Amino acid sequence: xxxxxxxxxxxxxxxxxxxxxxxNTIREMVVEKEKVSIxxxxxKTGLSRxxxxxNPTVRDTLNQAV
Length: 66
Hints:
Elements: H1 3-31, H2 38-45, H3 49-54, H4 56-65
């Protein structure tokens, strides 16, 4: 495995961790009956606004929660 493949694998893993973090945070907010909003999610996760809009998995979870 060359450096490029390792870099792609690492980036994919980081992306999956971000998605997992975002989805878990959204679910926690729903369970706690807290209003789900992008600014609150940004503060809790440290992820960008664009991430919540561009990632289809996170966006679907967010739409269901709202």
